[in-house]
What we know:
heterodimer; A: six-stranded mixed beta sheet; five-stranded antiparallel beta sheet; 11 strands; B: mainly beta; seven-stranded mixed beta sheet; 0% helix
Amino acid sequence: xENVEQHPSTLSVQEGDSAVxxxxxxxSASNYFPWYKQELGKRPQLIIDIRSNVGEKKDQRIAxxxxxxxxxxxxxxxxxxxxxxxVYFCAAIQGAQKLVFGQGTRLTINx
Amino acid sequence: xxxxxxTPRYLIKTRGQQVTLSCSPISxxxxxxxxxxxxxxxxxxxxxxxxxxxRNKGNFPGRFSGRQFSNSRSEMNxxxxxxxxxxxxxxxSSFRNPGQGSGELFFGEGSRLTVL
Lengths: 111, 116
């Protein structure tokens, strides 16, 4: 089955700087990689996703890159703002299989 | 459009008891999945239901069970509660049809279970 490793577990950056969170997956057949953001006390919400036929996807200040050969994908947040502080989860799924989440990264934006 | 609704939001049980949690998905969503969230363990997959059938199951003991009704509402049950079962239990619904691709998960606010 799929296994997803996420690093780092905590990340602290200065407001305005960039943040990068990395994930690796084990099943080369995985073809869908979403990222969820969970603010304190709230439910996780999808912020961006990428499918295996694409190498990069951007949405304003966030972007996700996928390296299928190395089986890793990353979330990039530029020009970070206080509202970016949250726990971020990566996930991977293959076909009909379950969505497997990484352990989460607690991102703190320092003013 | 109403979101995913989970009940109860908070509950306290003692060891050995059982608990039933309920999840009402977004109208039109037929896929419901359940996750256990604990500090440091992230989101652990419990099971996924589609059209009243369990399609995927996580690595949890048989004390954890679930079901889905014809209206797509789902329940999960935990029997013989242990202290380690204390967690936030999240339900998520999706348009996803297992076997036909992936889709966005819409999470409920969760049911926070405390086992004493």
